Amino acid sequence: MNVSGLSLRDLEYVVAVAELRHFGRAAERCAVSQPSLSAQIRKLEEALGLSLFERTSRKVLLTPRGEAIVAQARTVLEEARRLLALADGSDGALTGRLRLAAIHTLGPYLFPHILPALRSTWPDLTLILSEGRTDSLLEELRDGRLDAVLLALPVEGDGLAAEPLFFEPFLLAHPAGHRLCAAPGLSLNDLDPAELLLLEEGHCLRDQALAACGLSARGGGVHATGLETLRHMVAAGAGCTLMPVLAVKGAAKAEDGRAATVGGLVGYRSFDRTADGPRPPGRVIGLVWRASDPRDRGLRQLADLLRRDLPAGTEPALPRTAD
Q1: Contact 74, 14 (CB under 8 A)
Q2: Cα separation values, 73 from 6, 193, 212, 250, 252, Å
Q3: I want to staple 70 with a disulfide (CB 3.0 to 4.6 A). Which of 18, 58, 131, 215 is the partner?
């Protein structure tokens, strides 16, 4: 096949089907009829002499060679966007579509805070939001299925750029009337490991809670599938847990700002900084993207914007030091 026969539009069709695993939804994204999209992909497959997709009545799967072609197609499209940005003088700017994701324990509480500023600063930017677990989000980011992710730092791996945004403290969520309610101060040492409730394996918050409490990966006997289920387990009196402050602020706001939520059955306490160090247990939230992304400058501007407007209850990512 001659290079002149390749169409960037056809590559966009292929990438859309690979990401959505559905020809109809891919056609909607690309603003084209499904028959036209299917015909162009068939034409590309014939020209390449291979099948990109396994087509069944229930789902669409990438073939092994199709996976390699799609990965390269994403690279070609990214470089094409860089070329267009250079041509119109907007190299590095946030334009077009931004696929932004966050970890499950952050997205529902942070997105409402940042969206007004994002829409105001980049009114023509099309935002596609999603959530997931850290490992899967980083895999999608490296594969080009996401443009940027909001998660807890640090992250490992080459080819990624990261900017810290803010420090999010953990609070202790406990059943109303718990023995720690009346304690004069609260330290991690006051927690009973047998009472500690955790998210199931695969959630980074689980690992962060275990590390904060100095427990092994086997610590905590009862697990929850999500943060809100974890909150309801506390309300049911099953134990205590470490809760990110944004999840606490969001719950309190939803229940008219009451300090105890879930019908008054859950209370929250801050940790004593003098007991556990200059900062309470918590996590640093950052923005991560591919270092090769042509919109690197715009993504750093996005990080600056998010740092300037810290969510309630959070602190600057780097602690202030004395002059």
Answers
A1: no
A2: 11, 50, 42, 40, 46
A3: 18
Q: Are residues 172 and 212 in contact, defined by beta-carbon separation less than 8 angstroms?
A: no
Domain membership of residue 291 as a residue range: 97-166+283-316
Considering the domain boundaries, does residue 92 fall inside one? Answer: no
Strand partners, 240: 196
Query: What residue spans of the chain are helical by DSSP H?
Result: 8-20, 23-29, 34-48, 64-87, 107-121, 134-143, 204-212, 227-235, 245-254, 273-276, 296-308
Stated pTM of the model:
0.74
- Tell me: do 186 and 254 sit in the same domain: yes
The secondary structure of residue 295, as a DSSP letter, is: T
pLDDT truncated to tens, each residue of the chain (323 aa)?
Answer: 666 668 889 999 999 999 888 899 899 988 899 999 999 999 999 888 899 998 877 788 899 999 899 989 988 888 887 777 666 545 677 878 899 999 999 999 999 999 999 999 999 888 999 999 999 999 999 888 899 999 999 998 788 999 999 999 999 999 988 888 877 888 888 888 888 888 887 778 888 888 877 775 555 556 777 888 999 999 998 889 999 999 997 655 544 434 445 567 898 988 887 654 578 889 999 999 998 888 888 999 999 999 999 999 999 987 644 43
Is 177 exposed, middle or buried (CB count within 10 Å of its CB: 0-12, 13-18, 19+)? Answer: exposed
Of 47, 68, 87, the one marking the end of a domain is 87
DSSP codes, 206-244:
HHHHHHHTT--TT--SEEESSHHHHHHHHHTTS-BEEEE
